[in-house]
Write a structure and sequence with these properties.
It is built from eight helices and eleven strands. The strands form two sheets. It has a seven-stranded mixed beta sheet with strand order 4-3-2-1-9-10-11. A hairpin with a 3-residue loop joins strand 7 and strand 8. Helix 1 crosses helix 7 and helix 5 runs parallel beside helix 6. The protein is globular.
Length: about 270
């Protein structure tokens, strides 16, 4: 694990690379309710340009469902792993491999909603994942964590509790961003490219570890403690600025668009 003192800002990649992006806290500032965030046209344009520049080797790796991602970024559609890799869309316009809500998770969600479902606590039901958002009520985070930890004893084996910056989630063990990244790296669009992953939360640590194993570039946004990431950016604004700089100056090794970028960079 790296500490804040030995993390550095990332350099612009110089070889063939691909890009994996968390959303909340990385591309967008957190809000008390996940539906309160807004995507501006400037961000859509930036992501569309990067996707073109990388010949499609770009994917969201997020805890949101893919349906929620599409609604947020519409009309832009990119490759995506939703629900921490329990959902996938492996091509921009392809079908979504979805995940349903098990009956035992549905029952637990209703129990927790009965106790904590106030205006200040948002309980998000994401198929097999149950997320309790306490950003607007931090005093309830401990109780929310206690409820999901107690539920592990009566749920089938194969679930884990993941504490975040402002909430807690209950999810299957196979929900892991690192596994989602590895799945994309097996696709022709990503194969042979160096992975770059930007994330901001404890749920992204598994993705950082996977990227590090492949000599990739792991970037933690606004870290508050030890992290597996090897690089740091101070916040969402800095992450967007870095991505914009990459889009403007990066030499891409494949595709006519990349050749144009290299030619322009050589004249500067």
């Amino acid at each position: 694990m790296s500490t804040l003192s030995n993390l550095t800002e990332p350099n612009v990649p110089q070889d063939a690379w691909c890009l994996f992006l968390d959303i909340d806290g990385t591309l967008l500032e957190h809000a008390a309710h996940p539906d309160a965030v807004v995507v501006g046209d400037e961000l859509r344009t930036l992501l569309a340009g990067l996707d073109l520049q990388l010949d499609g080797a770009l994917a969201f790796i997020t805890g949101r469902s893919i349906a929620a991602v599409d609604h947020l970024f519409q009309p832009l559609r990119l490759r995506a792993a939703g629900l921490y890799g329990l959902e996938h869309r492996l091509t921009r316009d392809g079908p979504v491999e979805a995940a349903g809500e098990p009956a035992d998770i549905a029952a637990l969600a209703e129990e927790i909603e009965a106790e904590l479902g106030s205006a200040d606590v948002y309980i998000e039901r994401k198929g097999p994942i149950l997320a309790i958002h306490t950003r607007a009520a931090p005093q309830l985070l401990q109780r929310a964590t206690q409820l999901v930890e107690q539920a592990l004893d009566r749920l089938p084996a194969g679930y884990r509790v993941l504490a975040g910056n402002a909430g807690v989630e209950l999810m299957p063990l196979e929900a892991a961003k690192g596994a989602a990244i590895r799945r994309f790296l097996d696709l022709p669009a990503f194969e042979g490219r160096r992975p770059v992953f930007l994330g901001d939360d404890t749920s992204d640590e598994n993705g950082f570890e996977a990227v590090n194993e492949m000599d990739g570039i792991s970037i933690r946004i606004k870290p508050s403690g030890p992290t597996a990431a090897r690089h740091v950016l101070a916040g969402v604004g800095e992450a967007l600025a870095w991505l914009a700089a990459v889009s403007q100056t990066q030499s891409v090794t494949a595709g006519s668009f990349g050749k144009t970028v290299r030619a322009k960079a050589g004249r500067d």
